[in-house]
Amino acid sequence: MSQTLPLLLSVVEQVDVLSIVDNSPTPTALSLVHHNLHYHHFPNNIGIAAAHNIGLRDLKAANCEYGILLDQDSSIDSDFAFRLSSLMVASRVENRPLVAIGPRIICSFTEKTVKPRVQREISVYDDLVCVTQIISSGMMIDLSKLEGIGFKDETLFIDGVDHEWCWRAKQQNLMVAIAEKVEMVHQLGDARRKFAGVTYKVGSPVRLYYQFRNILILSRRGYVPRYWKMRNLLCMPVRFFANAFLQTNRWQRVKFMCCGIIDGLLKRDGSFSQHW
Asked: One digit per residue, pLDDT tens: the chain, 276 residues?
């Protein structure tokens, strides 16, 4: 909560409606004061996609125009919502089909701006950089276009949820963009490690189940970019080796990776606990 509280205190001053979805085992005692606050607690963890959908439905029910998704490990400035919404409004005035916008991400470990090695920037409009996908934390969505795209895919549970939604939006000829001059500090993974001169992020063992499984599930879908399929499928053996031999909890990691591969091949989705 020490990391989440500063975020909540900043958000509560910037939005009209605040929806908190808590997937932790025990409910969180909140001392926030807000005229339109929704708190949902799911001790069994319903997954990030379902959590997003609950929050988005709260905002739509309150007739909000835009909604921001934020993870508990992000940090934003006091004018974050205003700056993103200003860009959304400007794009609407100029008839640009912008459906979602996110900030430039600063990694909390390296304190450097994160720039994808493979993903290309499609085009640039003033302070907007059009891209194929953005991460969910910090993403502002035009809620009027949500029904046409659909909500987040709850069958994926967690990993790949943000990118999959962006790819569906692209199918509708809608734009996803990064705000060039808006930044947000975000924690990517739990730690950083180096292997063969390459720095990579390390997450919890159970996340490996969803990462490996969802790569196999998403790689079968026609609207998923080819470069994403190739990169992730080719990197799977390297990631398996790194997690099996170079990390702590090696056998636990191997178990989750193997379960993910099996379920991915068998097209089994949902949470890990549904199948194992």
From this structure: 667 888 999 999 999 999 999 999 999 888 887 889 999 999 999 999 999 999 999 999 999 999 999 999 899 999 999 999 999 999 999 999 999 999 999 987 677 787 766 566 666 767 899 999 999 999 999 999 999 999 999 999 999 999 999 999 999 999 999 999 999 998 876 666 766 666 667 889 999 999 999 999 999 999 999 999 999 999 999 889 999 998 889 999 999 999 999 999 999 999 999 999
Residue 147's CB is within 10 A of a number of other CB atoms, namely 9
Q: E strands along the chain, which residues?
A: 18-22, 37-41, 66-69, 74-75, 98-107, 123-125, 128-131, 139-142, 175-186, 191-195, 198-202
Q: How far apart are CA 57 and CA 52, in angstroms?
A: 9
Cα–Cα distance for residue pair 187/73, rounded to 1 Å: 6
CB burial readout 50-66, b (16+ within 10 A) else e: bbbbbbbbbbbeeebeb
Beta bridge partners of 202: 191
Using DSSP, how many helices (H) and how many strands (E) does the chain show? 8, 11
d(Cα 26, Cα 28) in Å, to the nearest integer?
Answer: 7
Tokens describing residue 189: 């993974």
Residues 82, 149, 171: CA angle, nearest 5 degrees: 105
In 10 A of CB 12, how many CB atoms? 13
The token duo for 29 is 């005692």
